[in-house]
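Hey L., structure's done. Input below.
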Amino acid sequence: MDSSGKAEEGHKDEKGAIGSLRYQVVNDPKNYGHLVDKDGKWIVRDDVKFWWRDSDVTAPRAVHKGDLKIGYSQSRNPGWIGQEYGFGWAVVENLKQPVLIVKIAWGGKSLKH
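Output:
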């Protein structure tokens, strides 16, 4: 099961299409509107820090780190998200203090095993 999702594109690759996070923001602002600013840009959380060492340590971008934002996912695509995006938002909102997420991921693994 793929654990990443598209932030901007969904069915037919239309902006804000069904299946995207943008669709949720537009169509359910009560629950998702807080993810964007007044101009519709994705909010970057500087109170949630993210650190992920790619499985290929020889790659030029082996370590990904910074503030929580759209674009940290297994695909390293700037328009995709992983579970850490929602998790980071939920944890910092409930703890009311800074959070560090250290992501550990191996390809080809399932949570069922």
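The chain has a mean pLDDT of 77. The radius of gyration is 15 Å.

-- N.
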